[in-house]
Amino acid sequence: MNYSHYAVRERVSALPRDKRSQEWWHPSSLGQCLVGSYLKRIGAEQDEPTPGDSVEHMETGKGIEEGIVKVYKRLAEAEGVDADTQRELTNEEYNVKGKPDLILTQNDSIFDVKEVKAINCRSYQYKAKAGQIAQENHALQLGSYLWMLGLPLGFEGHIVYRKMCWPDVIEVPVVLTEELLGKITMEFEILNRALKGTLPPPLPEPVVLEETYVFNRYSKVTETRTAWKVNWRAGYCKYHKQCSGPTWREEAEALAVEKNKELTEEKDVRQIDSTTSEGSPGV
Q1: Which domains are delineated in the chain?
Q2: Cα–Cα 20 to 30 A to 240, which of 1, 40, 107, 179?
Q3: Nearest-5° angle of CA 20, CA 21, CA 22?
Q4: Model-level pTM?
Q5: Burial class, 255, CB count within 10 angstroms (exposed 0-12 / middle 13-18 / buried 19+)
Q6: What's the pLDDT tens digit per position in 93-131?
């Protein structure tokens, strides 16, 4: 899974450019595979065409998001709040443009910025059980808008998650902190260096250790389990074969199996040590 920046640039330069290639970075470029964000920016073709059902799913999600924004706007204006939708924001220093879904203003002061995301039922339930934590890429996107609006550290915006299979909605806070702002500017700096041809974006690790929530049908309790999985940043990248090779996913899945086997063996050893310690006579 070696990644050669110049080898990728040579391969990509021979590909036909997408006429819709971006002239600016978008905040949604953050929190994912930055190599993929870079390849999309320069107009590279995806590894494979987007399936028709995926396109339909995305269009459905977009329609739901637009509907939620309209509802929020109507409710806000009924209370005398100015609700600005899709205002174009620009940061020329970092070459960024974006449009937040909703900026709420009262007495000439912004008091909330919302970004709406339609997600599948499984993802929605996971977020509810995980304590309503925003996905990193969503937090970086909304944080970018707060930064581009010049809002102070400590300002709180919200990701509005809407379940696609049922009209449930949760609002997850995203606070503009020094840490979040540092991640935002760092990733834009990485992307801009890549665009200038000076340094490639880092390739995400093929597998990551994650906590998952699993419902135990015997104990009727939702349990937290830790396991190695294919890194979602790589898994959702539509350009990953161009830098990691055509069999990268199979290699990553095999690596996850190997690491999970090691994890299970380590857990068994700890349990044996714990049992032995408990059964040992006192000194």
Answers
A1: 5-203 (3.90.320.10), 204-277 (no CATH)
A2: 179
A3: 110
A4: 0.81
A5: middle
A6: 999 999 999 999 999 999 999 999 988 776 666 665 555
